[in-house]
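Q: what sequence does this backbone want?
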């Protein structure tokens, strides 16, 4: 995941967008695990 974050951040996305994207993946992953 760290590599994906670095790529997105370098692409010019704002920190807020990256955090929102990470939160979305975390939420989906938690739902899938549960």
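A:
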């Amino acid at each position: 995941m760290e590599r994906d974050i670095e790529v997105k951040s370098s692409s010019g996305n704002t920190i807020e967008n990256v955090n929102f994207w990470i939160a979305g993946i975390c939420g989906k992953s938690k739902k899938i695990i549960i």
